[in-house]
Amino acid sequence: MATDIIIPSDLWDGDEECVITAWLASDSALVSEGALIAEIMTAKVQYEILAPASGTLSIAKAQDEVAAKGDVIGDVS
Amino acid sequence: MIIAPFATAKDGVAREAALFQAGKPALLLWQAEAQALVLPSAVARRPAFQAHLQQTQAAGYQVVTRGSGGGIVPQGACTLNLAICAPHGSGFSLEDGYRLICGALAEALSRFDIDAQTGACPGSFCDGAWNVLVQGRKLAGTAQRVRTTPEGRVALLHAAILLHLPDPGHWAELCLLNQAAFPSDPLLRPDAHTTIASLMSEAPNQQRSFPGALIRAAEDRLSALMLREKRAA
């Protein structure tokens, strides 16, 4: 069963979008729960995205793509 | 000593990162001796940008990456850095983070009868909505990084404050690298900036007093935030 990687909705107040500035693990890589796997940025604030589970990473939104709060940017299965 | 001196900006950025990793409330005011250009790691990782970085290094300027967002910042004797590690509890927004660090700067400046505002400043380096401006010119740029720890979120708030303008060679290299990294941004203009040296040019003792006023203002705000977080827990 896959666990979605979601941009938390409480990271910032407004409805601004963010940019996925980096994936720090490759598509199909094995990742451990809690590992730093991506960075996103909005309004000159860089946020870390941690793996929500251990398993194989599947990237749904690529680096430099725009995303909104609550978006699924990948999953771990 | 109020200002921590580092030989290189890399050392200062590393000290900030260590404080951030520790996850405890902390303040650091620092300055680097060697001239450098500091840019977000997300920009430095771009494959198309590698040749530009090599040119900058060949010209004799250190290139240092940092974890927080934003643009390219000149480092060296021209720049004073304020770093604040703060708890980022629920209800603490990115705007709150910017208000905290910009407010500390504005309060410190007010001690010298200098009025500061926040806002964008086209033509300034590392432009954003949360610059600290004096008479419409940029004095300081700010950025943040937020990480999640088992104890909750922690924010690293950072301000780069211009003590004086970079020397002409340093400025030229900043402009070249900035244009390569952000080709759609306006060209950088020296007259979009102001400096502590120019604002306090008639009272050199004020320039010496400013770091102390700044650290006290930052300490007051961080203490108040920690108290609010403690009460909310």
From TrEMBL, chain A:
Q: Which CDD domains does the entry link to?
A: lipoyl_domain (cd06849)
Designated name of the protein: Branched-chain alpha-keto acid dehydrogenase subunit E2
Q: Which Pfam families match?
A: Biotin_lipoyl (PF00364)
SUPFAM superfamilies according to UniProt: Single hybrid motif
Q: Which species is listed as the source? A: Pelagimonas phthalicica
Lipoyl-binding domain span: 17-74
Automatic annotation (TrEMBL), chain B:
**What InterPro entries has UniProt attached to this entry?**
aa-tRNA-synth_II/BPL/LPL (IPR045864), BPL_LPL_catalytic (IPR004143), Octanoyltrans_LipM/LipL (IPR050664)
Q: Where do the BPL/LPL catalytic domain residues begin and end?
A: 21-208
Q: Where are the transmembrane segments?
A: none
Recorded GO molecular functions are:
acyltransferase activity
Record-linked Pfam families: LplA-B_cat
Which terms are listed as keywords in the entry? Acyltransferase, Transferase
Could you say which EC number(s) this protein's record lists?
2.3.1.204
Name the chain's protein.
Answer: Octanoyl-[GcvH]:protein N-octanoyltransferase
* Annotated organism of origin: Pelagimonas phthalicica
Q: What lineage does the source organism belong to?
A: Bacteria, Pseudomonadati, Pseudomonadota, Alphaproteobacteria, Rhodobacterales
Gene behind the chain: lipL_1
